[in-house]
Amino acid sequence: MEPKNIQFAPEQASNFAGPHDALFYTITALMIFFAGLVVLMIGIFVVKYRRGAKADRSNPVHDHLKLELTWTFIPTVLAIAIFAWSTKIFVDMRTPPKDAYEVFVIGKQWMWHLQHPNGIRENNELHVPLGVPIKLTMISQDVIHGFYLPEMRVQYMVVPGRYTSQWFTPTKEGKFNIFCTIHCGTQHSEMGGSLYVLRPDDFAKWQAGGGNRFKPMPASLAKQGERIYKELACNTCHGLKDSEKGPALAGIFGKERIMANGQKVVANEDYIRRSIIAPYDQILKGYQNTMPIYVYKEQVTEEQIRALMEYIQTLGNSSETPVPATTAERKP
What are phi and psi of 330, to 5 degrees? Predict the structure, then answer.
């Protein structure tokens, strides 16, 4: 019977794996070196100056400027170097490319729900193309989770009420692990899944088949958002232009908004989400508390909010416009 291979660390499968491991092993080596040096010196002094030893104890040295400067200067330089190195990696990991393929992640007790821009949904599985930057936009519907891809060397908190994100570029084809790294309840240990990295042509085939699960192909998130937008009658108040009923939503993403209290807020994903479920927390200048909070806070899920965001972004980037809903489309 052949012995099993002992894996010292998860395999490297992303653009961050190499830099991450280099920093980790450098810090580990420095820690072992200096800890070993301290232990070695303690051992030498214990033996040399033990009771009864014939060591020369006359004229003991109480200070040594050169030695003190040396053990102050060297650790300081090393600390600054490690700080600069780790800061660069941290900044790179927090700055996804603008053309990254975005996947929406929802943490739930005790599973991962993932949505692709074209409408494909996955539970505890994520399929991505090889060599393409992948951005994960994440939120939790209950408690704090931690979305961890060990082979990719990326991990970040998934919290309720706020979007977080992380990104990576897979560099190796295969099946990898998904874990939750923050204790989130009794079945935390079962909250895992698999990441599948496919060649671009295989990924295209997988998408064309609706993720091997959906037949026919599901509507894109933007199309789903358009349907929800009409069903909730959002377009009766938010048209192409600002009106007394409500402000226009076309082209607002990334724009600065002035609140009734004078505060300036950038219309990002968090702003849109809060405006849907808690509109009274941030009222736009020139408007009052008129949005029916009881409808949207109780009825709209995180998946639907994401779909609405995708659709609202198309209002400013294409010819799509918020057509008023018919009476039949409106909820009572």
Answer: -80, 145
Chain region(s) in the chain for CATH 2.60.40.420: 10-44+96-218
Q: pLDDT: is 210 or 89 the higher one?
A: 89
Question: Which secondary-structure segment (H or E) carries 317?
Answer: helix 302-317
Find out whether the peptide bond into 167 is cis, omega within 30 degrees of 0.
Answer: no
Question: Which CATH number among 1.10.620.20, 1.10.760.10, 3.40.190.10, 3.40.50.970 corresponds to the domain 221-317?
Answer: 1.10.760.10
- Give the integer Cα–Cα distance in Å for 91 and 103: 21
pLDDT in tens, 105-140: 999 999 999 999 888 889 999 999 999 999 999 999
Q: Which residues pair with 13 in a beta bridge?
A: none
**Closest by CA position to 275, among listed 267, 285, 286, 263:** 267
In order of 112, 121, 207, 219, 277, the CA distances from 210 in angstroms are 19, 9, 5, 10, 31
What are the contacts of 165-168 at 24+ separation with CB within 8 A?
Answer: 165/96, 165/135, 165/136, 165/137, 165/138, 166/93, 166/94, 166/96, 166/135, 166/136, 166/138, 167/93, 167/96, 167/97, 167/100, 167/133, 167/134, 167/135, 167/136, 168/14, 168/15, 168/16, 168/133, 168/134
Give the pLDDT of residue 218. 67
Confidence grade of residue 317 (pLDDT, cut at 50, 70, 90):
low
**Is 170 within 8 Å of 138 (Cβ atoms)?**
no
**Rounded to two decimals, what is the model's pTM?**
0.75
